[in-house]
Amino acid sequence: MTKILEMYKCNICGNIVEVVVSGNGELVCCGEVMEHLKEHTKDEEMLQEKHIPYVTKTEEGFEIKVGSIPHPMIDEHYIMFIEANSSDKRYIKRKYLFPGEEPQLNLKCDCDEITVREYCNIHGLWTTD
Ligand SMILES: [Fe+2]
Predict the structure, then answer these.
(1) CA 25 to centroid of ligand 1, rounded, Å
(2) Among 25, 39, 73, 78, fewest CB within 10 Å belongs to which?
(3) Residue 123 alpha carbon to ligand 1 centre in Å
(4) What is the pLDDT of residues 75-90, one digit of tens each?
(5) CA of 126 to the centre of ligand 1 (A)
(6) How many Å lie between the centroid of ligand 1 and the Cα of residue 110?
(7) All structural domains of the chain
(8) How many Å from the N-terminal Cα to the C-terminal Cα in the chain?
C-alpha cells in the first residue's frame, strides 16, 4: 500500500514517481517492484551539510536553500528538484533545477509551516524537519 506524497524509484530505468492518491497496490516498473525512496535527514552524518534544505520565513512566504555548504550544480552532480509541501498537505510546489542554477526556491505562500524535500541525482532524497 502506498501513501500520499511517497516517492518511488525504478532502479532499472530511473523513473521516479510521487503518489498523488494512495492505493493498495505495489508500484511496478520495468517488471520489478519500485524502491520506496526514504528521505535522508540531518540525523545522518553522510553529506548532510550539502543536502539539508534550509528554510527561512519571508514577508511573502519562504526562502529555501539547499545546504549550509553550497551543493554542486554540475552536469554529473546536481539537485534535480526542490519540493515544498504545506504542513496540512493541501498544497505542493516543485521546482525543477538544472546544472548551473542556484539550488533554491522562493515560495509565495500564506501557510505557517512547510516541509521541504530535495532530490540529488547521486545522493537521493533529503528533507528538513
Ligand atoms: Fe549530492
Answers:
(1) 31
(2) 25
(3) 5
(4) 999 999 999 998 887 8
(5) 10
(6) 30
(7) 7-37 (2.20.28.100), 48-127 (2.60.40.730)
(8) 25
